[in-house]
Design brief:
With about 70 residues, this protein is mainly alpha-helical. It is built from 3 helices and no strands. Helix 2 packs antiparallel against helix 3.
Length: about 70
């Protein structure tokens, strides 16, 4: 699957009201928190969860006409 098509699918999915609510829940649970702690395994686990949210956010970002990502916050 092409990256552009995959981005479109993510944007369509998370553009709905329900998708926005799911994304907000995922962000509050796994993105807007501190991942680092004394246990390196717990830190790695939490950063792994956070990386999934980062992938979603990066895929739903709008692309500028010159092909570079728009770095405005969602």
């Amino acid at each position: 699957m092409e990256l552009k098509q995959l981005q479109d699918y993510y944007r369509i999915t998370f553009a709905t009201n329900e998708g926005q609510q799911v994304l907000a829940d995922l962000e509050s649970a796994y993105y807007h928190r501190i991942s680092y702690g004394n246990d390196p395994y717990e830190t790695a686990y939490k950063e792994g969860q956070r990386s999934v949210i980062l992938r979603i956010l990066n895929l739903i970002k709008e692309q500028k006409k010159d092909g570079r990502a728009d770095h405005t916050d969602s």
